[in-house]
Design brief:
two-stranded antiparallel ribbon, eight-stranded mixed beta sheet, globular, alpha/beta, Rossmann fold, 10 strands, 298 residues
């Protein structure tokens, strides 16, 4: 049985615009501790969930000098959010609408947003459709161009069909999938990543997302150029922006990161050495870099 700390947050449920029951973790240290500072809202990757942000959320919400309320969301079909019977609803515009619904339900009028991978793509859309919600943005290993090589790797391991018998096997599978690009991680890190990826069902780890999400990648023709979001990125250029890029990532190229910096001259770039896609936000020097960025925000 995994022993992830379950303290420090409230579980919150809310309804999407189409009535689906969605889940959030609310790390709320109290009004007095956070006065004058906007909350941080965290959006996970394609098949990831709120557990990815737990260590960072604890750090930020318990910061004795600059505590912030932190909200982490489970997208529809992931984690504790309900699976959608209409699998076509697993798309960026629908999930962007779910983030807007979360903000309304949880009383967030404006926030600093962290988007990991798909969560960062969602933020490209929100910058265009609901810029009033954004104070600043942190993109974790994502930009307007997604590299086909990286997406192919994600497609392949999501659809491998491997089912671990126990938590040691789960950690081994995660390491086999990601070990070549996450050279900075140790055994405990792999175990922690497995706990974030899998749900415990009777002592056995089970993937914590609707399999239809992984299945959908099989139909993507990766021999053709993927659509880009440069037009939406121009909307992001109006806000303070930090980009975290894995030193070994295959999803976000150096060329794309360089072009992002050219279009947004004040972009803060942090390279997570020894990490691939997507970097663990509580690992290495990333928390210090995020705190420094937050210190420049409201």
């Amino acid at each position: 049985m995994p022993d992830m700390d379950a303290s420090g947050f409230q579980e919150r449920f809310y309804a999407s615009s189409d009535g689906l029951k969605l889940y959030a973790r609310d790390y709320r240290p109290g009004e007095a501790a956070t006065v004058g500072r906007l909350p941080v809202v965290c959006l996970p990757g394609l098949t990831r969930n709120t557990r990815d942000f737990h260590p960072l959320a604890l750090l930020l919400s318990r910061d004795i000098t600059a505590a912030r309320r932190v909200i982490a969301l489970d997208s529809r079909g992931r984690g504790n959010s309900a699976w959608d019977e209409n699998k076509a609803n697993y798309n960026l515009p629908m999930e962007a609408g779910d983030v807007v619904a979360a903000c309304a339900a949880l009383g967030v009028e404006r926030a600093i947003f962290i988007g990991t991978s798909r969560g960062g793509l969602i933020l490209h859309l929100i910058a265009t459709t609901r810029p009033d919600l954004l104070e600043a943005v942190i993109l974790n290993d994502i930009g307007p161009v997604v590299e086909a090589e990286g997406l192919a790797r994600i497609r392949d391991y999501l659809n491998s069909g491997r089912r671990p018998e126990d938590w040691n096997a789960a950690a081994d599978i995660v390491k086999e999938n990601h070990g070549a690009s996450f050279t900075a991680l140790g055994r405990e890190d792999w175990r922690e990543m497995a706990i974030a990826l899998y749900r415990d069902v009777g002592g056995r780890p089970v993937v914590d997302f609707d399999p239809a999400i992984g299945e959908a990648l099989k139909s993507v023709d990766l021999s053709q150029p993927l659509p880009d979001l440069w037009a939406q990125f121009e909307s992001l250029c109006r806000f303070p922006l930090m980009l975290i890029r894995g030193g070994n990532t295959s999803l976000l190229s150096k060329e794309t990161a360089g072009e992002m910096a050219r279009r947004h001259p004040d972009l803060v770039l942090h390279t997570a050495e020894g990490q691939g896609h997507a970097p663990l936000l509580h690992h290495g020097g990333i928390p210090i870099a995020i705190r420094a960025f937050l210190a420049s925000c409201r």
